């Protein structure tokens, strides 16, 4: 679906006046729409700057997530992962008052299933939950860093999604809640699998997950959920995220992918395993022309433009 026009904020439902003054020279004459954008109903995609893809969640009124939505979310990020022209992704909401209100409780996700014996029903349910987890984790699998710009309400499943991105900024008006306990569940799609390793205050994480209480941007900063609180609301936090994305997009994409992989791998492995992995990665990264060109540019005090990464090889599965 093509991005929708928003009369309040301009095309694609966001504005970025702060970015223009800092990185205007990197902006193409018009935002480019990737050819695969039309495949998605609830997600708008555009390149507001070279190599920076803006992913905008757009399911009014509050970006509540039903099954069609989470399947599309996973498919969109898996497709983005294959696009070598994307070096950084910014994730935000088109809606004025919400990033996402979480699970759509009116959808058929919680609908009763046909009668089966307990074991068969549980096994099928487990497969469904794993598919759900896989879709929400798609940003973590992508090689590109993903920066979330959060404003307004971010409840329940929104926290699952935020745990799978790399950088999180919050607008001052952001309101978070690990809400699942209030509907009789423990968060199972990603929040409590990722956040205990990501945040710096596990005591506060326990408090918030056990009570489901709403907490603001400053508490999110204290928790370690976000790295920056941006004064203002949607436009301001999106501007800050795009500005950071433009800065990262000017770096060597080989180095950027390496940084993301190193941090992700280290979170799940011992120090010695991480060093072994990094030595193997760096053995090939040292062969990159980016390293030689970067060193030359530093000596000459020049800026440099790097080539995109190569597109992944496509295989005809019918022949396999």
UniProtKB/TrEMBL annotation:
* CDD domains, alphabetized: crotonase-like
Q: Which domain of life is it from?
A: Eukaryota
Matching entries from SUPFAM superfamilies are given as: ClpP/crotonase
Which Pfam family name is an example for this entry? ECH_1
Keyword field: Fatty acid metabolism, Isomerase, Lipid metabolism
Per its UniProt record, what InterPro entries does this chain match? Answer: ClpP/crotonase-like_dom_sf, Ech1-like, Enoyl-CoA_hydra/iso, Enoyl-CoA_hydra_C
Q: In which pathway does it act?
A: Lipid metabolism; fatty acid beta-oxidation
> Can you supply a Gene Ontology BP term from the record?
fatty acid metabolic process
- Keyword Lipid biosynthesis attributed: no
**One cellular component (GO) term of this entry:** mitochondrion
Single GO molecular function: delta(3,5)-delta(2,4)-dienoyl-CoA isomerase activity
Family (UniProt):
Belongs to the enoyl-CoA hydratase/isomerase family.
Q: What name appears for this protein in its UniProt entry?
A: ClpP/crotonase-like domain-containing protein
């Amino acid at each position: 679906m093509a991005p929708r026009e928003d009369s309040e904020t301009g095309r694609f439902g966001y504005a970025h006046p702060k970015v223009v003054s800092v990185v205007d020279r990197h902006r193409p004459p018009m935002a480019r729409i990737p050819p695969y954008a039309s495949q998605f109903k609830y997600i708008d995609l555009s390149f507001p700057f070279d190599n920076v893809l803006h992913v905008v969640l757009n399911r009014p009124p509050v970006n509540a997530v039903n099954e069609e939505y989470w399947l599309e979310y996973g498919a969109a990020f898996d497709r983005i992962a294959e696009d070598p022209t994307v070096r950084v992704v910014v994730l935000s909401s088109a809606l004025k008052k919400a990033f996402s209100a979480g699970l759509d409780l009116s959808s058929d996700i919680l609908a009763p299933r046909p009668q089966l014996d307990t074991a068969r029903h549980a096994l099928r349910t487990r497969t469904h939950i794993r598919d759900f987890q896989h879709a929400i984790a798609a940003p973590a699998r992508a090689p590109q860093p993903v920066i979330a710009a959060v404003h307004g309400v971010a409840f329940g499943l929104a926290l699952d999604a935020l745990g799978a991105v790399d950088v999180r900024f919050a607008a001052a008006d952001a309101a978070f809640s690990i809400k699942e306990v209030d509907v009789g569940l423990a968060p199972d799609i990603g929040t409590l699998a990722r956040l205990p390793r990501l945040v710096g205050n596990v005591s506060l994480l326990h408090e918030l997950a056990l009570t489901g209480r709403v907490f603001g941007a400053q508490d999110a900063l204290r928790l370690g959920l976000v790295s920056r609180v941006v004064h203002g609301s949607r436009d301001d936090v999106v501007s800050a995220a795009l500005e950071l994305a433009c800065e990262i997009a000017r770096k060597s994409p080989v180095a950027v992918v390496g940084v993301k992989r190193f941090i992700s791998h280290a979170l799940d492995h011992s120090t010695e395993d991480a060093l072994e992995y990094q030595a193997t990665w760096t053995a090939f990264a040292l062969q990159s022309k980016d390293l030689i060109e970067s060193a030359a540019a530093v000596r000459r005090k020049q800026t440099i433009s790097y080539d995109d990464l190569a597109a992944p090889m496509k295989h005809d599965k019918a022949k396999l």
